Amino acid sequence: MLFFPHNQAYERRFPTCPQMPIVLDCEIIEDNVFDNGARRDTKRRCKIAVEAPYLIKKIIGVDVVFFIQQNFLDMKTRTLNIEATNESFATRVEIFEKCRYYAHPENPDWTCFDQTATLDIKNFFGIEHSMEKMGMKQYTQTTLKGKEIIEFFVNELKQEGITHVDRWVDDATVTSTTAGAATNTTPPEKPPLCRDNSILDADYIAKYLGQLTPLQESKLVQLRKRFEHGTSEHPEPDYQTLLRFLRARDFSIDKATGMLQESLQWRKEQRIDSILGEYKTPAVVEKYFPGGWHHHDKDGRPLYILRLGTMDVKGLLKSVGEDELLKLTLHICEEGLRLMKEATKLFGKPVWNWCLLVDLDGLSMRHLWRPGVKALLRIIETVEKNYPETMGRVLIVRAPRVFPVLWTIVSTFIDENTRSKFLFFGGPDCMHAEDGIEQYIDTDKIPSFLGGSCNPSIPTVVETIPAKLYTRCFLGACHCTLIHEGGLVPKHLYKSESIEETNGAIQAHDHHGLYKAVDLKPGQLFELLIRNTDPKSVLTWDFEVLKNDTLFAVFHTEKEIEQSGNDDFSSVFDGPDFKEGTSYKKIEQSVKCRPKEGVQGSHEMASTGTYVLQWMCPPSCDGPAQLMYFHEILSSANYKGSMTSLQSGFSSNSLQSR
Q1: 269-286: b or e for each residue (b if 16 or more CB lie within 10 Å)?
Q2: Tens digit of pLDDT for each residue in 599-615?
Q3: Which of 26, 235, 361, 538 has the most CB atoms at less than 10 Å from its CB?
Q4: All domains of the chain in start order, with CATH
């Protein structure tokens, strides 16, 4: 019998492989062979780069950690078991990961793979919750990478002409085995796929589910069998729902089962199945929430438009509360599920996710009000758990410079697969720019406030919107899409004054040293040097002036540059080799920042070289200046479109408190 050489492919990933750059080295410390070559146990010590924000690395004091990995290869049973445990910080954190490759029990030509992991954080410098989030994120990334890596090296073997290897046999039985193979060269018949001919026929799959491989279809049917006996309390999930949860868990039946069971229990506890009929939109939400369903994109996805830049986050939270905003979001998600089914019937093809367009025009530091961000993170977490694979595309338009600060905070909590669907369009003209939103939405469906010809109007009388009206708008027969412009919620509508107040979006004491303090004497400079090797990446900054006026500017040079020495009254550009406009350029003009002002901004680093953030206390000041600052570099891979036209954002305590 022959089998595909997945074990050979696996061995090629050591000591390093380009698909896993965080693995810096792997050293074999034990390697033993047993049972005449049938079993091989290998123990490696692996050096791993710490993938964490600068703050975390600073706290834990290391850039690399070590793991012990043990491989147990059994050629008789055709299994490869892999166990990994952390060596670094073992007294603070316990990580145990187990992977298994094995032959499919019904079809020996198939190689199966499963993976589990446990993470127990006992104590970790006071940032246990952050480490847990990072650990789960890293585990998800490595799970997806494992399959990619094996497929890469399998294809590499194919290119070298290796498409199979002889199955291991004991020397004592090699003759009889060979003889048996000579008389029986017919490969085993693959098991027939389980199929309900009245439902899962080819036409049903093509119309309602989309293209599936035979293995995916088989797993879908197997998952359906686990939920066959639905009840009035737990209705049997339809195939579209089952498929979404399978996709969310990379077609692992066990993982999809667990995720779906938890979601079904949550739906029961929260009465989600009744939300479309029972939910009553609060009057303040109807009048001031700037979002609504608006036709569909070019792929037939229902399109939801949210004018986040004009949303009064604080006003809505204080008027209706966090729970009510979450309930509103769930109502929108349930509407989306219904509209997807309608779109599938309308267009005669599977539509199993929707499109979200977020207009950020008007976004400022008031949107980074801490309770608002907290509510947003709770909403994201709930939607990720219970509505997986429903977001087909997210178009972020007219993103101002303050946006990267918000994105830095929020993106960590968004599933990586969902994050890959975000497209960003900086600048005011998101429609006609190269690779603009016209590629994704028909021009006659683009709202007029984005430069299109469609004019979303608002009825003069605020009333509950009938379901049929939503349907007509979605189908394109109605120009009234009911997208409000938002605006400030009057304070007399506030019901809660207990929500935590925060002057400014991010305070130093809230972030465990994320922000650094600088004191500057009159005439003194502070310069931060950032060496860039990733063209089109985005440099983002956020600082608050606590005392006295401060001048701020940003420079760029392609020349080699060194941090200045002890003379804090001289710039790195004061040397004879530097001349402004020739050897270096000011890419952000100097601005004067006054006490209690916060400044947020970003710059698209179009080229490599050194970028310099410069703060100076004017010589005319009657005393020292004081500020808190933070900066971060966001990878070019996260952005689409240009951010060069964005302007720096200012905030002040008076603006924040409104």
Answers
A1: eeebeebeeebebbebbe
A2: 777 788 889 999 999 99
A3: 538
A4: 3-160 (3.30.530.20), 202-227+236-270 (1.10.8), 278-459+479-491 (3.40.525.10), 516-650 (2.60.120.680)
